[in-house]
Amino acid sequence: MRRLLAYLALSLALTAQCVALAGPVSEYQVKAVFLFNFSQFVSWPAAAFASADSPMVIGVLGDDPFGGQLDSVVAGEHAGGRRLLVRRYRDVSQVKDCQILFIGRSETGRLRAIVEALHGRSILTVSDIDGASRNGVMIELVLDGDHVRMRINVGAARGGGLTLSSQLLEPAQIVGPGEG
């Protein structure tokens, strides 16, 4: 029930521009739902998957701020006919067959190297590191008071061969290198 309520809250937020953090819902519960919803509002080229029946992988690079919340949100879910799976990585060199990668704050000092290592790959990069979008991360999740907002670097997403839905872009702040 909590997952369904969180999913509905984010779906409404994508059309209403933000998600209010209210009551017992934590910041990272909301961000976990954002990651799930990105699987619904982004299109990947077929080459981004090892095979036609490969799962869609949501990865977490660095220290995991979600605990079990991300696993709970995606448990039993599908996107584009693919089951969703969560993987955790300690180093960018381990990132294989991943479609959505959340870069944790523990990776702040390595952010540019991570973006360079993933350049040209069809991996939707997401982070809540301050300034991540202007440093090449595709989606930066920004806490603004009690709301989570998105800054999207469309150029970086296109560079990875990804197509972002207008429903995702409409509520976001669009940025490029050096902006945001």
Structure, explained:
With 180 residues, the chain is of the alpha/beta class. The chain has one domain: Rossmann fold (3-Layer(aba) Sandwich), CATH 3.40.50. It has helices at residues 2-16, 27-41, 69-74, 111-118, 154-159, 166-169; strands spanning 19-20, 42-43, 56-61, 78-79, 82-89, 100-103, 124-127, 139-144, 147-153, 163-164, 173-175. The strands form two sheets. Strands 1, 3, 4, 5, 6, 7, 8, 9 and 11 form a nine-stranded mixed beta sheet that branches. It has a two-stranded antiparallel ribbon with strand order 2-10. It is globular. The termini are far apart. Mean pLDDT is 88; it is low at 1-22.
Strand count:
11
Provide the domain count. 1
In helices, the fraction of residues equals 25-40%
Structural class: alpha/beta
Note the total helix count. 6
Give the biggest beta sheet.
9 strands, mixed
Key attributes of the depicted protein:
180 residues, alpha/beta, Rossmann fold, two-stranded antiparallel ribbon, 11 strands, 26% strand, globular, disordered N terminus
In a few lines, what is going on in this structure?
With 180 residues, the protein is α/β, with parallel strands linked by helices. Helices cover 30% and strands 26% of the residues.
